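Board notes (copied after class):
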Amino acid sequence: MFVARSQIGLMSKGFISKALILVVCLCLWGSQAMAAEDPQAVVQTGTDQIIKILNQYPQDTPARREKIQAVVDGYFDFAAISRLAVGRRWNSLPPEKQQEFTQEFSKLLFNTYIGDIEKYARQNITYKHKQIYQGYVVVDATVRDQGGPVSLNYYLHLKDGKWKAYDIAVAGMSLAANYRNQFDPILTNGSFDDLSAMLKQKTAQVCGSGRC
């Protein structure tokens, strides 16, 4: 029986925190019309939206989590990032396993890093330019935190007429690619069920600390 020696979440917590928090900022955009017209404005508007929520809910309460989660679920493409994180084996999985994995993965990501939202959402963020390639957009931004400027690349695509985030790169490091590097050894030496079990274990640990 395969025993996974790797742990989900070996990436730097600071890296994923920045990525997830800024993805949340990205997801909290205004109208669908704005999303369709100007993805860069979507990112900027999202930052203002999340600050508004933080002011309304100054403490990390279930109400604040639910409010943010509802928006994230609607505008961040967790199915796409799950597919990218699993890699080439994704298409061989039955739909029910894909759905189960996506739900567990999104829950782990959100509940692991939601506690850092206020810290990173209030950083100074500047936006440089956007690149559009037939339904795909890269919005470049720079976050100035205590450690100095950090470059970010938001990857969005059009899905059902709306821009949705499917990956983010921090200082050139892709969130999806980094998780794929963690998942590959588990899938190579074991099975997809081993990976799913590991995700559930990690999620249970996070939720057991009262963060869910």
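Comment from the instructor: The chain has one domain: 13-204. The domain at 13-204 is CATH 3.10.450.710 (Nuclear Transport Factor 2; Chain: A,).
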